[in-house]
């Protein structure tokens, strides 16, 4: 079992090494940091969505912005869209699970807000529909996917596609880069 544990850790490290050696991906992360800082300064909101483990990751990252990351500071306007379970279950039951995020974005999203969609496959229908609605409303979209981006690639203004097709490794990459974005946004927004 010890060898299997080492093998899994080495798989994770290999994906992270591919990320750190990809200047395109590093550049996109830097652009996203600047984008989020600029939009927060404009009073815009940052929304996150995902399914399953990606929903948990979305909620985690939203909390890093609205709570704190490293420094004690004011809350930033960020939230995960799936946290209202009454809304989520009503829309899923009365309309369709595919519409849970798009209906909410249509109702609360404003032009120049930012929507982050986390989907390891890049093909989650409810996130695709949310991105379509975001595009109609002038909301900037950031897709966080696995290698290639799936269908979400075409709907993303910015795409963080982790170079892997292995779901746990992709999610680990999302959290690594998500934490980097949180740290750098916090640094630039509050220390500039």
UniProtKB/TrEMBL annotation:
The keyword Cell inner membrane does not apply. Substrate binds at residues 51-53, 64, 93-94, 119-121, 124, 171. This is Phosphoheptose isomerase. GO terms for molecular function: carbohydrate derivative binding; D-sedoheptulose 7-phosphate isomerase activity; zinc ion binding. Its cofactor is Zn(2+). Zn(2+) binds at residues 60, 64, 171, 179. It catalyses: 2 D-sedoheptulose 7-phosphate = D-glycero-alpha-D-manno-heptose 7-phosphate + D-glycero-beta-D-manno-heptose 7-phosphate. The lineage of its organism: Bacteria, Pseudomonadati, Bacteroidota, Chitinophagia, Chitinophagales. Keywords: Carbohydrate metabolism, Cytoplasm, Isomerase, Metal-binding, Zinc. Catalyzes the isomerization of sedoheptulose 7-phosphate in D-glycero-D-manno-heptose 7-phosphate. Residues 36-192 form the SIS domain. It comes from Puia dinghuensis. The keyword Transmembrane helix does not apply. Belongs to the SIS family. GmhA subfamily. The gene is gmhA. One of its GO terms (biological process) is carbohydrate metabolic process.
């Amino acid at each position: 079992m010890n060898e299997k544990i080492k093998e899994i850790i080495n798989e994770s490290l290999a994906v992270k090494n591919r990320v750190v050696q990809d200047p395109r991906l590093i550049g996109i992360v830097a652009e996203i940091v600047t984008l989020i800082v600029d939009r927060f300064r404009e009073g815009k909101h940052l929304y996150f969505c995902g399914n399953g483990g990606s929903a948990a990751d979305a909620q985690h990252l939203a909390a890093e912005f609205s709570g704190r990351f490293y420094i004690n500071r004011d809350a930033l306007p960020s939230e995960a869209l799936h946290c209202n379970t009454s809304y989520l279950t009503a829309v899923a039951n009365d309309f369709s699970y595919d519409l849970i995020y798009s209906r909410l974005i249509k109702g609360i999203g404003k032009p120049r807000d930012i929507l982050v969609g986390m989907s390891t496959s890049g093909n989650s229908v409810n996130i695709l529909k949310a991105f379509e609605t975001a595009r109609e409303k002038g909301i900037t979209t950031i897709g966080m996917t696995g290698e290639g981006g799936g269908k979400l690639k075409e709907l993303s203004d910015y795409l963080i596609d982790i170079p892997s097709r292995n779901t746990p490794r992709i999610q680990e990459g999302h959290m690594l880069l998500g934490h980097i974005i949180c740290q750098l946004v916090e640094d630039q927004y509050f220390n500039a």
